[in-house]
Amino acid sequence: MIGYKTKGLKELGFAAAKLDDLANFIPARLSIILIALARPARASAALRAALRDHGRTPSPNSGWPMAALAGALNIRLEKPGYYVLVEEGMEPKTSDVPRALQLMQTAIALTLAAALLIQYFWPIESWTIVMI
Prior knowledge:
Layout: H1 7-23, H2 25-38, H3 43-53, H4 63-73, E1 77-79, E2 83-85, H5 96-121
Antiparallel strand pairs: 1-2
């Protein structure tokens, strides 16, 4: 309930919600690359959708991966009365759920592979840490 915009809860979660927005700023944008790589046949559609539709959601971060996934799967995602992502896409069906899960599992595997490669070629022991 932290971050809800109702009168009684808005002040309670404001700082936490802003900190969450800041912490997820870069990961949300990097996720579109991983989603595109996870579905190479529709990579350009995923990137185009993310760049075009990311700002339609109220969150500064959630629109990026949501629009990329919708573009990669060519489905229309809508929260009635709030936003539509990939308006020209097909209406989602229950058969799209396994496709979406497979896409996300592939993107997660790519993320893990990238992290392991970074760790291998740039181990933590070689990082310069400045203590204050």
